[in-house]
Amino acid sequence: MTAIVSLVVALLLLWLALWTVVARDAFVAVAGFVVYGLLLSLVWVRLAGIDVALTEAAIGGGLTGALLLGAVGRLRGTEAAAWSERSGACTRAFAVLLSVSVATVLALCVLTLPEPPPTLAPQAAENLAATGVGNPITGVLLAFRALDTLLEAVVLVIALIGVWSLAPDRFWGGRPGPRYGADPDGILTYLARVLPPIGIVVGLYLFWAGADHPGGKFQSATILAAMWMLVQMAGLSDAPRIDSRWLRAGIVVGPLVFVAVGVLGAWQAGAFLGYPDGWAKPMIVVIELALLPTLVLVLALLLNGAPARSADSPPAPGETSLSARSTRPMPAGGTRQ
Amino acid sequence: MSVVLDVFSIVAIVAGLVFFLAGTVGLLRFPDAYTRLHALTKADNLGVALVVTGLLPQMDGVLAALKLVLVWLLVMLSSGAVSQLIARSVRRRECSE
Amino acid sequence: MTGAPEGGTTRILAVRALLYFALWIVVDQSAKPANLVFGLLTSAVATWASVKLLPPASGGVRLGQLLLLLPRFLWQSLVAGTDVARRAFAPQPRLQPGFVDYPVGLPRGAGRNAFELIASLMPGTVASDGTPEMIEFHCLDTGQAVVEQLAVEERAYARALQPEPRDG
Amino acid sequence: MTVETLFALCACALVGIGLYGLIVQPHPLRKLVAFNIMGSGVFVLFGALAMRGAAAGMAADPVPQALLITAIVVAFAATAVTVALLLRLIESTATASLADEPPSGD
């Protein structure tokens, strides 16, 4: 029974991937990609990776999907021109041949994998008690492979600097993205007023539970960042100026605390990022607490994009930058068909 | 007693699945964006409600059951809000054309 | 559970904080002291956010009255779902879709948004637009007495709302 | 066939599909989507290998799984930088074309 479910999920996944790749319309392709991301989290559940499934649903499907949907809207005008540059039949035949060969070689490798498979699970299980956390994934992320996680946080900050550096000079220090001006009494604003406190409780729960159960700072940060984006899109608060001090402090606090703890380990435990005996759990909690604001800010600001307007000239309230949303006069009268 | 509860769960969940099917059929058969929204929100809400009801007796503890109800409430909040947002955006696009 | 119409800000805040803490307990499901302490912190943060986003001055809700609406709401959901399912499975979907303007009594604001939300989950209606005086609903079957039905719902719902300042 | 072999083979096909889209689709945004699909194929392959390493009472090897979380987050960051580059390209050249031609304007 479960084998049939797995097979159906795998076939659906392949079909969606193919559909996404060959669809003519970019919007359709991105919509397909979002559904693909959700289906992919089902795959992770079947592959016994609940933590990975949560990350995939939140970041792989959710955030990436939102990012791509935003881009599709702004790239609409360039689609037709690009379509005319479509590769010829010869290139396509070559592409099919190449893709099929790559997939076949990979599949042959899969079928000739060594037995028994190499694994680090016994070592992880043996040493997990020393870290004081109950979720082995968190143990790996913050104790056994803490250097990877530190570098990952640095990569996120560098990516954000990269995005910001694409701002035109005149907007440096300004605010990213359009200023959203949704109807202050509309349903989106209502959602942005009611949902964030609930999102905060659920997000912080995921953060707190990550030590012993599936969950953790990445999934939590995604939910909190999504709540912030909802408030921004409803026009209840504007995107921050990228030159504000508190923002920059919040962005670097995570990596800085991480490095500080690492140096402390080099001094006290004899290795960079080593934890002194009995101090692993509190150190891990300190790192996670410091990483949370960094992750929330960076994830949301990556979605916001490069600064696109100067900070000191906010448009009139209620003005919307989404040109498609023109207001219309309300026709009077009862039933219209 | 547990047999009765199991039968109740199965019946409720199957009924919920029927409504999910109805929502999907409606999505495919109904003529325009608005009517499809009706199909999705109403039939799927009832589907979720029935699946949640069916699962309630299977949960161990009142808190776990409340968590399921919470999921149902959040699904309703989002589907109610999103259906309005889609309806409004389609309406405005139609009127500006 | 009736909050005072005015001067009850503290009371409203306390109720909200309690609700967020209850949410934490339902989500967390463990009674470990450390979790409860973090839960208290979390509900404080959530309450702070809710004060920022939805100031208590914009009117409260009678929770008891709202609970009385629940059976009615559940029944309506059942009717809505079966109604749509019947139409979807019918050999010829019998639809008479169209827009209906409903003259609404509730002032613009969170209370009216919640009503639109509930009405969008009711049989045959989805809110599609609106002006200060009315809400435009899209209806599956304009042959039904939509406006009358909505008026009944609004009266039931308005009883659960505290009088709020009509400042829009 | 076990679940992990099934999804490992599925992942190989995903890499192929993504590669095809990367070559064939002319629009940079579509290339980006295809590249993400290719990347997810690599992730699933890695995840299937993690499940093969199930031992010591764990349903899967936690080390590759933790690295997968890192990978998904870094992939998002890379996608965000690419989208920003793309938007800037269009802003300054008014085209999303990647063809060899002298850049116009700006």
Automatic annotation (TrEMBL), chain B:
Highest taxon in the source lineage: Bacteria
Keyword annotations: Membrane, Transmembrane, Transmembrane helix
Keyword NAD in annotation: no
Pfam name, any one: PhaG_MnhG_YufB
InterPro entries: PhaG_MnhG_YufB (IPR005133)
GO terms for MF: sodium:proton antiporter activity
Transmembrane regions listed in the UniProt entry: 7-28, 64-87
Coiled-coil residue windows: none
PANTHER family: ANTIPORTER SUBUNIT MNHG2-RELATED
Name of the protein this chain belongs to: Monovalent cation/H(+) antiporter subunit G
Organism: Candidatus Dechloromonas phosphorivorans
